[in-house]
Structures are given as C-alpha cells and as structure tokens.
Model the fold of this input.
Amino acid sequence: MNLPYIYNTYNVKKIMFFVLIASIPAILTECYFFGLVILIQTFLFVMFSLLFEIIILKIRKKNIKNNLLDNSSILTGVLLSLSVPSTLTWWMIMFSSFFAIIVAKHLYGGLGQNIFNPAMIGYAALLISFPLYMSSWHKENTNFFSLNDLKISINSIFFQTSKSDLFLKNYPDSFTEATPLNNTKNKSRIFYNIDSLYTKLKNKKQNNFSSWNYINVSFLLGGVFLLYKKIICWRIPFSFLFALVIFSIFDYFFLTNFIFSPFLHLFSGGTMMCAFFIATDPVTTSYSNIGKIVFGLIIGFLVYVLRIYSDYPDGVAFSVLFGNMLVPLIDDCLKSSGYGRKKT
Amino acid sequence: MKKKYNFSGGIKCLSIKEELDKYIIYHIPNPNKFYMYIQHNTFKNNMLRVRINQKVLCGEPLTFGDKSSVPIHSPTSGWIKSIELDSHSISSKKKYIKITIVSDYLNQWIRLKKINDYKLYSPKSLIKIIYQLGVVGLGGAHFSSSEKLILGINSKVHTLVVNAVESDPYITADYCLMTNCLSEIFIGCEIITWISKVTNILIVIQEDKIELISKIQSLIKNKKLFKVCILKKKYPGGSSKIIIKSLTGKDIPYGKHSIDIGYLIFNVSTIYAIKKAIINGKPLIQRIVSLYNHRNHSFKNVLIKIGTPINFLLNFLKINNSSNDIYIGGLFMKYLLMNLNQPILKDTNCISITKHTRNVKKNINYECINCGYCVQVCPVNLLPQKLYLYSKNNNHEKTKESFIMDCIECNICEQICPSNIPLVTYFKHEKFIQNQIDKENKKKKEFFYRFQLREKRILNQKKSFYQNKNDFNNTDLTNTNILNKKTNKNFINQKQIDKNIRKEILRSSIERAKLKNKNL
Ligand code: SF4
Ligand code: SF4
Done:
C-alpha cells in the first residue's frame, strides 16, 4: 500500500473518522427498514461509550482531551449499535458499552493494546446474557420517520412498554438479519426443505425478505469507500469472503437441500459488516501481509462452521473473537526476515 | 516503453513543478573564513601538514591522511588562523580537528598535475592519485573512493552502477550536475572502467527526468558499454542496497558490500570528482549543494567550496535566518542546524529551509495501533512496529533478533505512522545501545582470551620451576664428582629454561599488542 503522500496524511483520528463516514450508508439503510429507533439507539451507544471512556480515563489519570478526541470510542459505539438488533432497552446498551469500553479496551491497556475487538466483546456479552433479545427483531416498519414511529421507539428503548408490539418471539417468517439464518437453520435440522421456505418467503414478503441484502450492500459500499481511501487493506475482507464462499459452495453442491446457498452466506447476517468494519480493525489483527490473509481465512472458516453447526444464529462475533485470540500466534509464526538474510 | 525497475516498499512523493532554467549552477564567491573539519586518529600524532599562521595555497593538502581518511585540501589561498579540537553539530559526540583558514581572495592555485592520457598509467597509480586528491563518496556515505576501487580490483567487479538517483525526493543536485556536465561524467565512467575493468555500465536514473534520459540515450547509442536503467520515482531510491535490489532483485548478503557480488556503485558527483581529479588534477574542494525552500517549493543549486559556513551562503542568497529553520538534508533525512557557522562538509548534499514555527503544531502521540502501514513501506523488509515495541521495552535481544542493525534510517515509517510515533529516534537510540553491547562483548572476549594466556604462562613457569627443583633433588649430593658434573649440566639447563621463559613472555606480549591493534 504505497500512499502517494509525503507526510502522514492519516493520523489515528482521521482513520477513525473515515470509518465513521463509511458506516453512514448502513445506518441510513437500517433507519429505512427499522425506523428512527436505530438513530436513537446509535446516539445512546455513542453517549454511553464516551461516558465510560471519560470515567476510565479519569481513573487511569490520562489526558482526557487527547484520548477522547481520537474518535475510537465513538466508532466502537456506532459499530455496536449496527451489530445489535433494534429492540434493546437503555440498560442493555449501557451494559454492552461497559463491556466494550472498560473491559475489552481499557483493562487491557487502552487503544492499541487490546487483544479483542471491543465492539465484538460488547456484542458477545449481550449475546451470552440475553440471547432471547438478541435473536428477536423488529417488526416491519410501515410508517417511516413519523411521530408515531418516534413514540414507539422511545417507548421501546426507555420504558419497554410496547413489548407485545415489538417483540416477535419465534415468529416463523420474521424477516431481518440474523433471524432468517436462525430460522432456516432450525428448519434444516429437521430436514425441512429449504427451497420451499425460500419460495414461501419470496412470495409473501418480497420487500422484507431482501432487506438484509440491502443492509449488507450498504456495508459493502462503505467498505469500498474505505478500500478506495486505502484505510483498510484488501487482504482481510477478500480472504475472509473467499474462505466463506469456498466452504459454502462445497457444501451447497453436496447437500443442496438443507444448507444455505453461498449467496445467502454472503449477503445475510453480519457478513459484510464483519468483512469491512470488524475484521479489519487494525489493533486486533495481524500486521504482516501474509498474516492478514491467514487471519481472514481463519475467520471465514469459523463463520461458516458456526453458522452451520452452532446454536447461535450468526457466528460473526465469536469467530472474530476466536480469530483475535489466534493473532499473536500468527504473528509469531510468520516473521519476515530482515534484509539479505536467509529466511528463518 | 522501457522496463522500469522497482522495489517493494517506499513511498511515492508529490512531484514539484520542474522549470528547466532553474537547473543552473550558481557560483558562490569566497567567504572570509573557511572551517575545515578533519577526522583525527588518536594513534597518529603528526597528521597535520600545516602550522598556525602558515600561508596556504588553493588546493594544498592540509593533512597526510591515513588508511581510514583521505587527505583534505585547502579550498582557498590564505592563512591558517587556528587549529583546535571541536565537534560539529551533526555528530556532537565525536571530536574533530577544526582548522580555520582566512582567505586572501586571490585564489592562487598550487601547481596542478594534469593527465591527458590516463591510459598510460596503471590502475594502481591512478587510484593513488584519486586517494591523494581526496575524493570520497559524495552521495552521503562519505566512503573513500580509492578504497572502494581497490576493493573492486581485488574482488572482480563486472558492473559499474552510476547512481543518478537523488537520495531525497526534492534534491536536484545530481540532476543539475548531469544536465550541465554530462560529457565529463562519461569520461569519468571511462576512467573507472579502465581502473577496474568492468564489462558494462548501468546509469540508474528516475523516471521523471525524461529529457535527460533521452539525451543520455542519444549519446550512448554507439557505446556498447553503457546502458540506461530507469527507476520508478519513489523514495528511498538512492541507497546502494536498494538500487541493487531493484536492479537485480537480489539482496546484498548481510555484512557484505555490493562489491562482493560484483557491483561497483558510484554517485554521479563522485564520478565527476574522479574525472576532475585525474584529468584536471584538481583536488576535491567544491561540490554542488541544492538549496530547497519549503515555503515556496523552490530550489537552487549552488557550486560551493567545502568549508564555506552555511551562514555566509544564506546571507549571500539573502535568506533571512531568523524566521527560518535551517536543516541539513532533504525532506526525510534531516538534521536541524543549531550552529549556523557550521561549514559545508563533503557529504552535505542539501540544505532545506522551512518556516520557523515557534509553537510547534500539536502532534498528539497516540499508542501504536498496529495498523501495519510502516511494515508495508519499509524498503528493507523490517517490522518497524515490532522493533518499536521491543526497543521501548528495552528488550535488546529481541531487537537484535529482529535485525535492527539493517535499518537504513530512511524515516519513511515515521512519516507514514498515523500515531505520530517518533520511530527512528527510538531506533537510533536502540542502535547505539546495541553497539555498546557489542563492544562490551568484544571486550569480555578479549579479556577472557588474555586471561587464558596468562594462566598458561604462569602454569608453564611453574612447571619449569618444579622440573628444575626435581632435577636438583634427584642429584646425588654425596658424590662430589658427580655433583660437579650434574650442577654444571643443571646450570646450562637452567639457562636454557630461563631463556625459553623470556622468549615466551616476549612472544605473548607481541601477540597481545597485535590483538590490541586489530581491535582498534
Ligand atoms: S527507518 Fe528503518 S525501519 Fe523505518 S522504514 Fe526505514 S529502514 Fe525501515
Ligand atoms: S505505522 Fe505507527 S501505528 Fe501503525 S503499526 Fe507502525 S508504529 Fe504502529
């Protein structure tokens, strides 16, 4: 990656800022499908993240202004809000940002020293503690950006009143992100024919069925922007998607009936978000070129395995965390040799 | 389109607008005082050829020179005003001999020995002339050219690489020299060919010098020896290691020079100096320095005498030095000049001027975020971020294992780092420590060796002593006749043994002295 500049046109602040910009299309698309609740949720996540950051910086006696201005905690908040479903209440948001900022980031030594991806730790904490909330999704949003919408979302976040309205427990034809994955998986366990499910879904709710596709595409757009700006390296996303597609193609050809298609793998759940926003987090990935490719391949494989065989709907968070665990090992094994010496 | 040579790592730079009429060499008049810095060797007392208040002529050698340093010549005619020990601001730890010469503005030269047909001379004698006229590598390495040529003769080089790549992106001194004195450079190349018997000459030049390339190509059309290699415009291209790597794709093995794999690298200005030395008989007393102004991206190339104080140069060009920061070196490798009376040295190739900023722009240093930008730009395949971590935590063994000594201090990683970490400062410090550790280890080894020698010696002495005693005891004391005989014999033996011991002591001390010499 040869940057065509003389001076460091990127600093940490700018890198984080560009990632924030790149996540705007995804936020807007989610807003379109789920309503204003997403915006409020994002705002709350960012606020709580900043709050915890300030508290922990005070405790650690660091320069608050410099460390707060590097945008990294804001980014953590935004990524968290993009990866969780939109039915959380405020105390869950606080819980998750607590884990993300304090436990995952600052207990390991602050920015640059954390082993695990903060956003994914926050997500995993929620997923382990409240699995039901995390796998239930919003009902179809009919009244975009209206006052009613605002009311419902505020109610759902702060007071949890309209629970019956919003929660779709075990609703079979639920339509967004992780749930279709979950649903098809459950069906496939009992040798349910997926093809018929697809056709059923497609016929019934054309628009809703493809909503997660749109969200993934918007993440892809942001990722392309980042690639163009050369903020992230192409190696991780491509090796990750490559591994995912290869493994799913293998399975798809042998067990057509009850395994998802590669397309479903690529454009469902958090695949694109993981590829361009989560897995490319520089701090927790390998720094060498080959190491990056190996890391991407490992995550791709893990995502595939977790999606097919585990009981969680989407394996992205856990596979990224497992990948992070392996990074020191990768770095240690793939040492590049110095100049003019034999490779060791 | 011809093939462009490239290397991994490095960064492209924004190009400056090039106006051809600016590639004119400005001549600078003589200043009042010249300062010459001379590396001195503590083991040699009489290096200097001149005394205080002596009159010198232009081109008169000031020192004898020895194995490690070439003679240095007076840039002007005048008087020696003072000779003292001083350190210059780039390497403040070392002491140099500083000679101040007051110019008399007459510029009287000593008699020059011109050689018209160099082919009448043997390579050895030509190398001697080059040595005596004080030619060193002008690209920045400051390595004696004569020594390089001797090494080249000894180890069979096959290619001469003419390095016309600027060591920093905005230096134009080499380019300026090439546009103005191309034919003389070719003569210089031929001289080197005669000396070291190379079979082909590669002129390495960066791709943006299009006019020059076509000019060279038209000139070398009917010369078989020459070839032009076009390098991609990237920083750092000028280092010899990197040139070899981009031309051949091979690394120079660790601890060896490019000469060992058959490539002789000379900077353009060095070749020019060699030509001047042999054909015109002129010693190396002047060089081209480019002056780069950051404020309006303008540059100038001046032909300047070595030893001219930078202050004088700036005054002559009417550059205000109170509102500017003056650096020696280009954009990437630069030192802030503290003392403006610092003269131009033989390896100064650029002076850059930036606006003086009193309150330095706030560059917040973050922690390393492991982004790997620095790994991707490093031209010699190092892992700067690992090195940084190890050197920060004083893990000297690991830093050595990660090959910190290979770092060429090109400063790219520092420029590209998004966290504004002063990486190269850490590396320099760490290198210093590594050198210290190396020295210590060497010393320990030496002491151990000496200790062993001493033990051996003492043991030998003891042995011989006890042997004598035993002999003495064995003798029959009762029989006088026998005693006489035996004592006589013993006496001779004793003498012999004493002699042996003395010899042994002498030998070991000679050996020690040799060892000492070798290590120094
Ligand atoms: S300064 Fe050293 S470590 Fe940094 S890029 Fe240059 S050679 Fe590599
Ligand atoms: S460029 Fe700077 S922040 Fe990035 S890995 Fe290297 S040292 Fe760390």
User: Anything to note?
Assistant: The two ends of chain A are 25 Å apart (CA to CA).
